[in-house]
Every structure is written in C-alpha cells, then in structure tokens.
Amino acid sequence: xxxxxxxxxxxxxxxxxxxxxxxxxxxxxxxxxxxxxxxxxxxxxxxxxxxxxxxxxxxxxxxxxxxxxxxxxxxxxxxxxxxxxxxxxxxxxxxxxxxxxxxxxxxxxxxxxxxxxxxxxxxxxxxxxxxxxxxxxxxxxxxxxxxxxxxxxxxxxxxxxxxxxxxxxxxxxxxxxxxxxxxxxxxxxxxxxxxxxxxxxxxxxxxxxxxxxxxxxxxxxxxxxxxxxxxxxxxxxxxxxxxxxxxxxxxxxxxxxxxxxxxxxxxxxxxxxxxxxxxxxxxxxxxxxxxxxxxxxxxxxxxxxxxxxxxxxxxxxxxxxxxxxxxxxxxxxxxxxxxxxxxxxxxxxxxxxxxxxxxxxxxxxxxxxxxxxxxxxxxxxxxxxxxxxxxxxxxxxxxxxxxxxxxxxxxxxxxxxxxxxxxxxxxxxxxxxxxxxxxxxxxxxxxxxxxxxxxxxxxxxxxxxxxxxxxxxxxxxxxxxxxxxxxxxxxxxxxxxxxxxxxxxxxxxxxxxxx
Length: 515
Ligand code: AMP
What we know:
Blueprint: E1 9-12, E2 17-23, E3 29-31, E4 41-42, E5 44-48, E6 51-54, H1 56-60, E7 69-71, H2 93-112, E8 117-122, H3 128-140, E9 144-150, H4 151-162, H5 168-171, E10 176-183, E11 188-196, E12 199-208, H6 213-232, H7 240-259, E13 262-269, E14 272-279, H8 280-286, H9 288-304, E15 314-318, H10 325-335, H11 348-364, E16 372-374, E17 381-386, E18 393-399, E19 407-414, E20 423-429, E21 439-446, E22 458-465, E23 471-477, E24 482-486, E25 488-489, H12 496-506
Parallel strand pairs: 1-8, 8-9, 10-15, 12-16
Antiparallel strand pairs: 1-2, 2-3, 2-4, 5-6, 5-7, 10-11, 11-12, 13-14, 17-18, 17-20, 19-22, 20-21, 21-25, 22-23, 23-24
The structure holds adenosine monophosphate.
C-alpha cells in the first residue's frame, strides 16, 4: 500500500468522550461514527468478567454496576494505577485508555478498512510522563502512533483549515493571534497561538490537568447529595452505584442548564427520593471559583506570550464544556470579543489531528507539506541537585517552560572521584525550586564512563525535547568525543515486558490482570 492510500486518522482521546476523524478523498476532515452510530464515544470501560465493554453501554452500566466501570482514566495517566480498584483488580490507566483506543480503532476499521497509524491528541498541559503513557496506550492498542499533538494546537489547525488559512491564498494573509480556550470533560488547556499563513506557532501554554466539566458535575452532585442528606439523614455518596446514577442525572442537568434557565435533578437511594430544581444562577454561583481558575490561567498564558487581550484576533472555544453560557460570557467580558464557536466544539480536535496525520503521511511519501506546527513545552525541565547548604533536593531548570520545540540543552556534570564509572541524573518537570514538588520523569544512569577519568572530569548531559513533547537524553564525555545513548528509567511507567503482555491481551479484549 502506498502512503497515499493509508487513511489519515486522528484520534481525540478525551477524558469523557473520544472522537475519531479521517481525511476524505478531497483532504477534508470528517468525523467517523462508531458501531453505535454516534460521533462521540464515551471514554468509559466496563469490565464484565473477562469481557471488556467500551462506550455507551459501559456508560449505562455506571448507574447499576459502578464498581466495575472505569471512567476519566485520562486524569490518572502518569500514575501507576487507576484510582479505583475495578472488580477487585488494579489496572494501569494506560491499559484502560488502550481498551478505549481499541474500540475506536476497530469501529473505524469497519468503515475505512484496516489501519494502524494514527495521530493521538493530548492536552497541551500534559507533562512528559503523561505523553509517554499516552504513546504506550497507543502501542497497547496495536496502533502505530504517528505523532502526539496538543489538543489546542489541533483545534487551531482545524480552525485555520476551515478559514482557508491553509490555502495558497490564505497563507499570504497577516499573522493572527488566537487564544484557544479548551475546557473538556476532565482537563483545561489554554494556548496562545500565532497563525502566520500556514504556520501554527504556539507562543505560550498553560492549564490544569485536573479541571473540567467533571468538576462542574461534582458540584451539582454535592448540592443534590447535601439536599438528600438534609432530608433523609443519609449520605448517598458512600455508595458507588447511587453516586454513578446521580452523576448521570447531574451531567444531564448541567447540559440542560446550557439551554434553559432551570433543570430538574432527582436523587434516589435506598428507596428514598429527593427532587430538586436548580436554576442557572445557582449553578453558576456554586461553580464560580472553577470558572475563575480558568480565567486566571488565561491571563497567565497571555502574559507569558507577551500579549494583551486587545492583541487577540480570535478567542476559540474548544471542548464540550465551553457550551456553558458562563464560559462564553466570561471570555466575552474579559476579551471584548465574541468567542468563536464556529467549529464543532467536540470534533475540532480530532479534525486537526487527522490533518496532522495527513501531513505526516504526505511528507513521508514525498508530497509537499501544506502547513507546519511549532509547539512549546508546557513545563520546565530540570535536573535534581542538592543544595550544599540546606542539603535539600533542588530543581535545576535546564529548559524553561514555553520554550519553542524541538530544543536541545546541555548541562555539565563533574565526576566526584577518580575512576568514577557511572553518573546518576534525576530528571524532573515543574516550576518549583524544590525537586520534591515537581513530577519525576525518571532517572538516567550513565554506566559506561571510560576508566581512569580523573576526578572533576566534565560529563555533558544533553536533553532533547522533541516536537511532540517527548524527551531523549544523551551523554557526551568531552575527553572522549563520544556520544552515549542513555535510557530513562521511569518510576511509574510499564516495563516493556508488561507492555507486550498487555498488548497481546488487549488485542483479545480480555480484562485478565498482568501486574
Ligand atoms: P469533551 O471532552 O470536549 O468532549 O467535553 C466533554 C464535557 O463537555 C463533559 O463534561 C460534558 O458534560 C460537557 N458538555 C457537553 N455538552 C455540554 C453542554 N451542552 N453544556 C455543558 N456541558 C457540556
């Protein structure tokens, strides 16, 4: 098969819903429907004995079999295990994500024939560890991950495509500054971009990997559960099934409140019932602090991009939660512009990913590129050192956040003693001066230092942040003029052996545990 025949597929692996898109024969991104005929697949997994059910049916089971259902696993990426035990077992979050990817891929195969390659999107604010876990989830699901791209960047590319910036005529136009406000189910991202013809340049990015529509749902859930407790002196939050059922009610009510001034919520537990009517005003009041957090993050991102609100040409809305009127009103007030909701909020990210997949396949086939993307890193990269005075572990920043990618940076270490044969480098991501408050990426051991090196010999460690936000580390011993590759040993990642065992198993869609 030539590259021209390989479908260009983009996957938005969302916290609450996932979407698959491909480029059609004319190069237009189109959303693929799943086996149930829906454009959005709930990112929910039901582990039913040895069977794995993903999507709408799994979501339905949340109200009756909540203890066998995994939802919002994306929020746990980068952790060793999903935050709840499912059916008595612990699963790595990348395995849960892989089951979702497997369903997305096999449904897509029914329509477009077999394919393995795909571009998968991640929140811009995902750190290196979470990006690696996403790539691993792709591997587990039998995908060849062509690229990992940032969700807001993907949305901006889809926007650029829709507005003709990617045409020859569009490219000559003046640069535009766009703020992409992406509030999904479980994550919040803001990225300030400059669209210079067909070049998409991220200027700054910021966000919160634990803030999304889900938190708005939780507030409604707490309101309803409190009312239930006042009336019946029972806390239904102690029962997973009752919570699962009420959560669905609340998510529904939240959507209603985007269109109507009032919404009903019914809380039921142990045969007792409470009926509430929530007004939009009450809802907005009880979630105001969540919205304020997103506003504050936008201000920080603009500042990091050295722009003012008045410099922006567009404020782009991405993610299902931007349908809440409070989001639009806040952005309009602060930016003085009507936020642009012209793109399908849920589908724009997958469309941008499909465009990027098309670009990669075209380039590898020798066809010309129609656009280019340049990203920045969302977290500072540092190495751990010890403060000589306090003896505390410090974060020595090597690559500051919002640096254009790809980038390489060199840090020199000195051997401590004569004939030292190895050096240990601990790598972290984060802004805090204290290494303990940062995310540990892992350790690199440089094991093969030449013998008889005198004490205090320089050793250069070269960090290479790739365009997709993944890290490679190499080591150079200047006296030897030799480059040594070094593997990062990760603290929370799955070993290759575990990955391969899960991969074999996931292809059979079985839930048996490997850890
Ligand atoms: P995404 O991850 O972008 O698909 O966004 C999913 C989130 O959007 C979920 O939290 C949904 O509850 C939320 N959402 C979808 N439609 C609406 C709506 N009409 N009003 C409020 N929230 C919505």
